[in-house]
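Hi there,

I know you've been waiting on this one. I reran it after we fixed the sequence typo, so this is the corrected version. Both the input and the resulting structure follow.
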Amino acid sequence: MYNNMSGHIGGRCRYTGGETTMIVRYLCISLCLLGGASLRAQVAPPSGAWRQTNVTWKKPPAELELKQRYSEARILYFSPDQRFVLMSGTVIQGPTSEEISQGDGRVVYLGTWKLTGNSLQVEYRLVSRTVAEEGETLPGPVHSEGVRVRGSTLLFQKGRFRRDDKLDDELKAILQGESARQGTSNGHP
């Protein structure tokens, strides 16, 4: 008895693996093509501020009755004209706001970023530090590193960063102020 839907005749398979082999081949070819396409896929250019996520948040003393928390964090900033900021400082987070503390120390690096295909490269140098380190000269040496893009997360120097548009204006102002102080309008190291 022949069952047209299953390819079986009287309980025995009428195919000796040929059809299965062809299906497996088509699947393998399809997966290879899809995998190759994803490797060639372009990474979207980054923009704005990206705050470090793997940080420890602390609360101010209870007697201050502040509805906020704070943490030491690094922030990356990518401007549309390919200038780059790496800043370390204290981030204060309120119920509807987020800002960089003006009363705590900070370290600022300026540079540039470049996106080529799926590779994001930053080049930067130390330009200011609230508390100078002994023997340190500014601007510091140029560093060049890659930034890995993983979905909506950036991976940089063992840190994870997520887009944080609440810090865009502050980081843009830091970029403009430090660039003016350094006498560089293009931010190149």
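Quick highlight: The longest strand covers residues 83-93.

Best,
R. S.
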